[in-house]
Amino acid sequence: MSRTVIRGGLVVTASDELHADVLIEDGRIAALAASGTPAAETFTAGRTIDATGKYVLPGGVDAHTHMELPFGGTFASDTFETGTRAAAWGGTTTVVDFAVQSVGRSLREGLDTWHAKAEGNCAVDYGFHMIVSDVNPGTLKEMDRLVEEGVTSFKQFMAYPGVFYSDDGQILRAMQRSAENGGLIMMHAENGIAIDVLVEQALARGETDPRYHGEVRKALLEAEATHRAIRLAQVAGAPLYVVHVSATEAVAELARARDEGLNVFGETCPQYLFLSADNLAEPNFEGAKYVCSTPLRPKEHQAALWRGLRTNDLQVVSTDHCPFCFTGQKDLGRGDFSKIPNGLPGIENRMDLLHQAVVDGHLTRRRWIEIACATPARMFGLYPKKGTLAPGADADVVIYDPHAEQVISAETHHMNVDYSAYEGKRVTGRVETVLSRGEPVITEREYTGRAGHGVYTPRSTCQYLT
Ligand code: URP
Ligand code: ZN
Ligand code: ZN
Ligand code: ZN
């Protein structure tokens, strides 16, 4: 039996903070005991990790990534190998990526394709959601089978007409199906039909710079779509999870629905908490680095997102990691912002940025772990295997130095992308050591993992319903 003991750290979970020693046996948490007590003295192991002065955290769960996503004539630049390695560097030990159904193809074909991309390549464990781009009777039947197989959540798009877009009827049908089979609909809530009109009009006026991407994708059109998605879900009797919420007005729609007692949930991402429309307006096409959808908003929106995280009107922070290099990929939209591939890198930065939010007083430590580990695990049926440190859980553990200072930079990051959205940002706190099922993936700031250690992790249905 392989055993590890982590001694002397402050164990932080969504519910508790405790100076405790952690015993790991065969890849799982075997026991926790208050440090220095006789119970902790009984923990013996071949490997001891001294965590004195450090935090001992459950590995991060990033429930929204897009490795190798085909978008706008190119592919997101992180593969499952490079992206999951970067995840580990940033203290994330589980990713849930989006498999894509192509229009005219089955869900199964899309899922098989994503399995082939990931299998044998991942440094940490992974699961899949399914992007449903073509709702038809066959697709609806397939959804039932996918839920049984552990793909229990489905993303639909109210944006991107002609690509991933679903109309209200298709959305309602998928929601009705998920009300029956236990699936969770994840919604990209922006009125894409209206946005496309505004895009066309902006381009006709010669407004081609990246900042117009933010101006045409209006907060009101996010709020309108959020409202519509909520009411469609209510009609269907289905729960709803709204992805990448960025606008104050959209948070208000979620808050209202939750006050009504609906099972409606919201996710935001570090880019909406730490970046703004000012970045999109950076000169010399630099703004292209910040083009994603929903777009970065004027700074004033950040307060509503922080408040939503505190009031639990927003429950999860995921990255929507979808990197495109500035040179050669973001470039495709020089002279036409609508051709800039949408997406930002961030899988490596999420845990640190949210720790900075703890330092800045936006979040408590336990809330940090709740929104980054425990709730995403519950929301997507991975708890308590993932998302907490408790006997029986996978030994996905992060030893975190809360006092280390670092400067985020593309020079030092491990994501396969030629810029950082947070270049030059100073943060307090740093991942030191990461275990995935007990195996050291990062050991005192050295990569000691391997492609293929990470395994596919089927999920149960949502464990967060009220
Ligand atoms: O701009 C983004 N968010 N790109 C990834 C695809 C999506 O809509 O999540
Ligand atoms: Zn302490
Ligand atoms: Zn989206
Ligand atoms: Zn996304």
From TrEMBL:
GO MF: dihydropyrimidinase activity
Enzyme Commission code(s) on record: 3.5.2.2
Pfam families: Amidohydro_1
Cofactor: Zn(2+)
SUPFAM superfamilies on file: Composite domain of metallo-dependent hydrolases, Metallo-dependent hydrolases
InterPro entries, per database record: Amidohydro-rel, Hydantoinase/dihydroPyrase, Metal-dep_hydrolase_composite, Metal_Hydrolase, Metallo-dep_Hydrolases_sf
Keywords, in A-Z order: Hydrolase, Metal-binding
Domain of life, per lineage: Bacteria
Recorded family membership: Belongs to the metallo-dependent hydrolases superfamily. Hydantoinase/dihydropyrimidinase family.
Protein name: Dihydropyrimidinase
Record lineage: Bacteria, Bacillati, Actinomycetota, Actinomycetes, Kitasatosporales
Gene: hydA
